[in-house]
Amino acid sequence: MSSLTEKDRPIVQLLLNTGTCPRCILRFCCVGSQMLYRHPHKDLMKDLQEFLKSNQEKEDTVCLDVADPPCKRSRLEPRGEGAEDLSHNGAIPQVPSADDGNAAMESSAGKVCNVCLGILQEFCEADFVKKMCQKVNSADYQFTSFVFSVSLPPQLSVRERAAWLGVKQQMRNLGLPLAKDDIVQLKEAYKWIIHPQLSEELGVPADGKSLFEVSVVFSHPETEEECHFLATACPDCFKPAKNKQSVFTRMAVIKALEKIKEEDFLKHFPCPPSSPKNLCDALEIQCNNGAVFVAGRYNKYSRNLPQTPWIIDGERKLESSVEELISEHLMAEFKADSFNFSSSGREDVDVRTLGNGRPFAIELVNPRRIRFTVEEMKRLQQAINDSSDKIQVRDLQLVTRSAIGRMKEGEEEKTKTYSALIWTDKAIQREDIAFLDDIKELKLDQKTPLRVLHRRPLAMRCRLIHTMKSEFIDEHHFRLHLKTQAGTYIKEFVHGDFGRTKPNIGSLLNRTADILELDVESVDVDWPPSLAD
Fold this sequence. Notes:
Blueprint: H1 9-17, H2 22-28, H3 34-37, H4 41-53, E1 73-75, H5 98-108, H6 126-138, E2 147-151, H7 155-173, E3 182-184, H8 186-202, E4 212-219, H9 223-233, H10 250-259, H11 262-268, E5 281-289, E6 292-300, E7 311-312, E8 315-316, H12 322-334, E9 338-343, E10 352-365, H13 374-387, E11 391-399, H14 401-408, E12 415-424, H15 430-433, E13 442-447, E14 460-474, E15 477-485, H16 490-495, E16 501-502, H17 505-509, E17 513-523
Parallel strand pairs: 2-4, 10-17
Antiparallel strand pairs: 1-3, 4-5, 6-10, 6-11, 7-8, 9-10, 12-15, 12-17, 13-14, 13-16, 14-15
Helix pairs in contact: 1-2, 1-5, 1-7, 4-5, 6-8, 7-10, 12-13
């Protein structure tokens, strides 16, 4: 049972007298009934008035008997503190009588709460909920549930501490015990009120595991003014950060409140807190959908197309890339903000990828549309393929974030098959290259190639050429089919990279060799699952 009892009477009277709203009073009395917080503001004021009028010996309740889950609590001071008396340039106000409490309620009915700064007042009303829902609906997201989050002005923690110190002193003056040093969190109480209203307006349930988030960011113009004394008392807690507009973040303020001594706090902040000059402002109402992941395999048929945008010193070298040719269609259909492209390895700009293609995955960030049928994915795949003759995709499908890990698992242990067109300076005959077919599991020592040294660390890598098969063309050209360990630099294996790859085709044939064309014929990663045509 969640209830107000006789022991709560002094707390109710003091907080009402100092300008605290009914819902914050319930929080300070540790009332855990979610239904009670949803009652209209005027009804709660009336209930509290009736409570104060009731016989002091009658331990009755003014709220509904509702079986609610345990609520989260905010601890307002460390354990073990509070033995000494508190003061702030004078005495704490005496407990008002019931008549005084009624007068306080009448005078404060239209005022901004001195603890929550109006969040549990105006921002719980139906008009504000409708404003949030209009923002959500206008953003045109697909969702079947939602999770609600709220960001609060940092000085709320300061005002809660000040109100609590006032309550603690009042109870001590009356010789009454105060067993608890925590209250119902403002965020939790706010969600108790907002969740059913949002759910009704949006037509979907609230779900803590939902990927669709509706968030409200509250701000207050007096944040820096009210928190400034903490920066003086605890300067180590407030350090500038590049991505923060103010040093007075919620976590910094909480850290400072844990460090500051009570006597120092009381010297600089009124307890109970004074009425604020302004109401909070709902700075932002935001929506965000969890990322959607699309996977498939791509073939690249052009020898003048990079996998990702080719930009050097801010200058674009080629007009497009595999990544862009695929992602532009996905971005448009999923209506996403941005994307992240990944693949099982990569090919050079002048290398084709043939066979079954190379596995890839794209993370679509904050998509508006998230539901696609199998037929719709097939049509999307066809649209990509019709848009360019440089690439083709297959097996396009929705996947989970965890499934993408399979693309990278054991990447260097996987095998890849290549076809290389090779030139030699000295004339060759068919029998000069036949011995290559008999070489198995050839071990290479490959120092980081000169051509990638600007973006890869200098290292010696051991790689394997599992098999080779030669195909004689003429006295200066032959084609070599190779099955290698993933991560092998094929071009360097052919020409030797000035001795940085040993052995190499040039050293094996005892002549200068170079590579004219290279094709990836297969990437042996069994992912994503193949789909029927």
